[in-house]
Amino acid sequence: MNSSRRFDSYNEAFTKNFITFVLVFTIICINGAFVYTYFKSKDFQRDPRYVLYIHLVINDMIMLTVSLGLVISTYTGNPGFIPCWIMLVVLITTNSPLNLAGMALERYIAVCLPLHHVQICTVQRAHLLIALIWLVSFIPAFTDIIIILITQPLSVFSKTVLCHAAFVYNTRYHETLSLVVEVLLFSFVFLTVVLTYLNVLLAARGVSGVSRASMTNARNTILLHGVQLLLCLLSFIAPFINLFLVTNWPHKRTDIFFSTFLFTNVLPRLLSPLIYGIRDKKFRRNIRMHFCFKGCRTVEDRMKVRPRRTSKQAIH
């Protein structure tokens, strides 16, 4: 995306920025509705399941906002090294996969260890897990800057840069670190999601009625977390997708970068609200109450206040 400024015409650049802004703004508004609903209900705030979910949604909103800033800066000029580094730290911080692993574990405990769920899964522990996720996620980002301090002169911090991880972190040490982190991270999260899904699937076979329906719902939720994980993986393999496509269609370079950016970074952020916003009855009911029923109630109240005509008034 960051090299597109040199090849796109003004109309092309405006169109791409406009499309990106509309999509990002729409997704942020949808996610913002769920964040608003969460903070308006004490029931959601007392449930660790929803605490982890809303952290995932807020994280997606932050990622989208920073991504939009990077896209706009691509066409308006190169930022300084430090502002670029701050934005890259946010983008490289891989919260979502670890958060998905935590949510899958919570569902596993709720279904397979229901008697211990209240003691194990508390709001306080959910907050501690979120803090641990941020701490672990920041380690690779700060390791990247330590490598720069060791391998690059200090004058690099006063330069303007093409704000892309491939250009800022361009040493072989960065490549090795990135590969190791991605393999370890996704191996851990993938195994967590698969094992929790299989355990819930096995537990669901020996029950019936309401319990079986609950387990089936939990199994489907964990399966969707696996789909989310695969979509998160797309953002990491996007450079390889770009390399393959650009090699075969070099004249479509900027269009390829733009398309892969949308499909690997922007559109997958729609899945998080869909999983709980549409499938979760509690969230769906509260969303309707806050954003639909208020208008309906206003109309009904006005109808009740309006005086009814008597038969004589109707005749006249």
Q: What share of residues is helical?
A: over 70%
Task: Spell the H/E element sequence.
Answer: HHHHHHHHHHHHHHH
What distance lies between the first and last C-alpha atoms, to the nearest angstrom?
72 Å
- Give the DSSP E fraction (strand runs of 2 or more residues): under 5%
Assembly annotation: single chain
Q: Could you tell me the mean pLDDT?
A: 78
Please, how many helices?
Answer: 15
Overall, the morphology is globular
User: Unreliable stretches, pLDDT < 50, 5 or more residues?
Assistant: 1-6, 308-316
Query: Based on DSSP secondary structure assignment, what is the total number of beta strands?
Result: 0
Helix and strand composition category? mainly alpha
Gyration radius, rounded: 24 Å
Main sheet summary: none
List the helices and strands and how they pair.
Elements: H1 10-40, H2 42-45, H3 48-76, H4 81-92, H5 95-112, H6 114-120, H7 123-151, H8 165-168, H9 172-205, H10 209-248, H11 253-266, H12 271-277, H13 281-291, H14 293-305, H15 311-315
Helix pairs in contact: 1-3, 1-13, 3-4, 3-5, 3-7, 4-7, 5-6, 5-7, 5-9, 5-10, 7-9, 9-10, 10-11
